[in-house]
Write the C-alpha cells for this entry.
Amino acid sequence: MRIRSMTCVAGAAVVAAMLGSPAVAADYPVLRGSQIDDAPPAPALLGGSTNWSGFYFGGGAGASDTKFKPGTGLQDLANFAFRNTTLGQQVNMGSLVNNLPEKSDSGVTYFGFLGYNWAFGDAVLGLEADYTRSGHAYQIDDYIARRVVTPDGTVNDFSLTTNQSAKLNDYGTARLRMGWAFGNFMPFATIGGAVGRFNTSSTVTATNYLTQTNPVTGAVYQGTAAGYPLTVGATKKNVYGFGLAVGGGVDWALGENIFLRGEYQLIRFADVEGTTTTVNTARAAVAVKF
C-alpha cells in the first residue's frame, strides 16, 4: 500500500506540472512579445521632435532675378544742362528724354547667414542676418539731336547723350523670423530691413552748335556755344541704398545639429541715384545649430 500511494502522489505531481507549464511559459519575459512593446523609435528623418532653440549659422546659393526701374532723374538733368540759356527757356529739354524701360538681370547668387531662435512650445521666434553677393547690373544709353531756332534768329543744333546704369554689388538683411515647429520641419516667415551697396551712373552730356548772324554787321558766326559740351550728373561707387525684406520658407532638421533650408526672399530698395531695385530670390542652404 505504501508503494502504491507514493506512485499516485508522483503521478499527480507530473500531471500538475504539465497543466501548470503554459502559465509559467506565458509569464516568461522572452515570450511576452517584447519585440512589439519595445519597438525602436522612428528614424529622425521621418518623425520625432527637434529642439529649434539656440544659435545657428550656414550658407547656400540662390537663383535671383533683379529688376531695375529708372526714375525721372535724367529728365531733370537734361533741363539742368541748359539752365539760364535762351534755348533752355524755350524748350523743355526733359520732355525730349525718353522714359527709360525697366531692365532685369538674373543669375546665381551666394549668401551666408546666422541667427538665434527662441522656442515657446511649438512656436519659434528668431532674429537672423544674412549677406549676399550679387553683381547684377543694367545700363541704358540714348542719344537725341534737334534743331531749334530761338526768337533772336540763332540756329541751335543741340544734342543730349544720356546714360543711366546701376550695379548691385552686394547686400545684407536683418530680419525677424516667426516659425511653427512640426517635429523636424519648421515653416517660417520673415520681415525686416535691407541695405545694399551700388555703383551708379546718371549723366547727361549736352552739346550746342550755334549759327548766328550779327544784326549790325551781318557777319555769320558758326561754332560751339560757350560752356559746351557739358556733362551733368555723376558716376558713383559704393552708394548705399535701404529697403524692406520679406520672405518665407521651411527648415528641415536632419539631426540635432544640422538642418536644410528652402526659402523665398523679396527685397525692395528705395530710389538710389535715380534707380529703384527689386530682388526676387529662391534660395537653398545648409546650416549648423548649437
